[in-house]
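Work package 3, deliverable 3.1, input record:
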Amino acid sequence: MPSWVVFILLVLPIVAALAIFALERLRPNFGLAWLIAMLAAVGGWGLLLALGLRNPAPLQLADWLPIQVRLDDRLLLQVDPVSWPLAFSLAALLLAVILTAPVRLGQKSIPVAWASNLFITSIGLMGVLSGNLVTLLLVWSLIDVVELIVMLRTVQEPRLNRQVILAFAARVSGTIVALAALVVDQDAAGSGAPNAFPQANVLLLLAAGLRLGVLPLNLPYQQEIRMRRGVGTLLRMVSTATSLVLLARLSPIEVTAGGGALLLVASAIAALYAAAMWASAANELDGRPYWIISLAGMALISVVNGNPLNSLAWSTLMILCGGVLFLYSGRARFSIVLPILAAAALSGLPFTPAAYGWPGVVDESFTVFDLALVLIPALLMFGMIRHAMTPGDALKDMQGWIRVAYPLGLFMLVASAWLIVFLGAGQTLIVGPWAVSLASSLVAAGMLFAAHRWRSTAHENRRFEWIRSLFRVIGKWLTSVLSLRWLYVLFNDFMKAVHWLVEGFSVILEGEGGVLWVLVLLALLLTLLLPEGLR
Amino acid sequence: MSTVTFWIFVPFGVSILLVLFNRFIRITRWIAAGVTLGLALAAAFVNFDELVLLGGRAYELSTSFSVLGRQLVLNSNDRFFLVLVYGLGAFWFLGAPAAGTHRLFAPLGLAIIAILVASLAVEPFLYAAPLVELAVLVSIPMLVAPGRPAGQGVLRYLIFMTLGMPFILLGGWALNAIEINPANDTLLLEAMLLLGLGLAFWLAILPFYTWLPLLSGESQPYNAAFLFSLLPTVVFFLMLNFLDAFAFLRNSPVFFQGLQLAGTIMVATAGIWAAFQRDLTRLFGYAVIQETGFALLAISLHSETGLALFAAGLVPRLIGFGLFALSLSVMQSRNVSLRFEDEGLAFWQVPIASLASLVAIFSISGLPLLAGFPVRQPLLEELGAGSIAVAIWALIGSAGMMYGGLRYLSALFRREPTTGQPGEGWYQIALLSAGVVMLFVAGVFPTPMISMMLNVLSGFANLF
């Protein structure tokens, strides 16, 4: 298939977004705007489905620099077994957002928001299809800037502004670490051809980990910022997907035993902590950052274990199963089936999409550490069902076509999760380590049962209130330790000390005696550096 | 007709006239902009080696001019340099009305450009030193607004620049001595040391850069930035001239190691210092130091790629400095404090200027998507091929500058939003927006910019 198909894939949502913007300016028509958005989303999803069957040639936009450098300076976009599952997931999420949008008409779901969704998805597709690190870095920055602008326009409080800027800073830090990976990677010098993705895998792992908020665990959004469900979900998922694609592209990592263990433990703690926070969150939107961190943690664990391709299973499920729940605003008795199907996809039971993810996380020799890993999907599934069972907007009061489009949109997400394993060259339907996934599912079922039982016998539980209080205290303590806020306070103190030193030097060099100090420094430098004949 | 007359004496003569009529501030700015733009375009399109057709008659351009027994030479090899320097002048003079510069900026700015072009054209090169010193002296009234006392930064600038002159002159004397006695290694080292020190003073290389943050805090940012972009550019070309002319210098590993060490320390210290600044003008000063450091690092690679990266870096640096300085001037002209503590109001009073300064900082720090990145990242990789430690320190410097930008971003959104119209005028908005767009376009599509800049290296035949 020719490479320009990739170009169409990226341009289609942008053209549709521009058409909607123009329509809104010239002759606002709500129905037509939705139809345009829907057609673009269906077109993108269908095209990607076709590209899954037959990958097109890579699209190389240009040799980026006119000089000979060590950098792989092509702007390269490619649909391959690594990028396709993520791109297809994003296309499915966009389709679901547009199909479910009419349900949220009362929550400012307007044509401009749909156009924004199309635009954001196009950037996300660009990111996941990036064929080398330079292209990916450019897209990372674009996403960071777009997210910064969207978030700063959404929030109006200085306290929330600070969270937005901290999140931006964390992402930029990840970008800097990725730049360091390019610098450290000197394999190109040896082989003669630059690498599309550097061999400095640990640095790239850290870069992705920083951007995802997993390595080290960082949660800039202490309080989830209220955004429209569609734009908020897409923005978060797009940003995360572009970091996850890097993980899947890493070649198996070679780290020392100690280093590997440290990375594993750090990722596992972050994932477990986030899963627990997700399960206990007030609602699915408050828990959204934790959902992302937890599944991103599972993807990271796969990579540290040397199975980067298995990370794709967790990554795609994060987008698709998460999408089901985050877009699940209208609720009816029958619609609970959809979150349950999504939870089943995440269970990892034989022939479910997550079954391909489990071998990346646990191996045949089951250890105590793996026991902790079993808890993560269990908590995630428990949280999914728990949040799905809380009351939402009544679906039965809505128009007939909305009642068809809405569940169809959510179903497309679940169906896409299975389609990826059916069609994708990277993933397949497998049995997987069924004992582990079964254990995880049973734990989730047990937790659901216990929670149900606790709620139904609430009036009898008063005498056990002290247990609840005890758990709350322990939970608070664990949260303060595991969230690593203490580490950031220490880091802040260190930066203050450096600041003090820098100020001191500035005062000396720029003060009255500054010129003399400069001459002393010069003398010192000359003494140290000059060859012997000139001293 | 002589190229020297057109590109040195004519602008210098115009600058004298503009000084005489400096009260007509609007007219002087536009005349200076028109003259520089015209000279840049003329240098781009007129071939010095062919007859020039003017009014139906053909004229031959002579490329040299004799003054008191010395030669001023501007030949075809200098064409792209002339385009660069006069284009740079036009860039700054066109922005002067938006920045609200004082009445001496345009006349003296034009004079400085003409003198610095003369410093590159003069043969023997030894006489470049007094010409650079002359440009420095002329720049003092430009940096200190009429009627104001000179601050410590300006005085230090004058001291260090003046100290540079004797070192260059002595270096030139040593070079002459080497021609008589080429086997004398000590003389070679002495010449190198003297020239190195002279260039270090002129380029504000460590440890002679303390005046930069001071000066950027004292003078009007736009005037200071004009000088920060012009003077190092010319001095770097003087240095390349030295390297091109003297084989012992370009074959000396010690010289390039010294450049690399100085560049690394400058980039790293400027980045670390920038990370903790609480004043935008000082942050600007450290940005200038860092850019000079990166230019040194590019030249220190001692390769064709290194030189290409040095040339490629000139445009992002120019746009970055211009945008940064213009936004600072706009903020100052609207009485917006440039200290981070008071920046909470800046975004609501002058939103475009405050965002433009932010984009400029990130571009200078080499953030992907902005103009600095396509030059900075390959440079870091080339450095890494030689020494990972040098590359990592340079990256730390870049990260420090980015951290400074993030702190500024945080300061901008510290307050509750207020409503009101943007405080900038339409011309200011147009220039600031154009600057931001240029930084993004050059960041994503750098090829045209870099290809164009590679031409300025055409005069250095021996360097490759």
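The CA atoms of residues 25 and 103 of chain B lie 5 Å apart.
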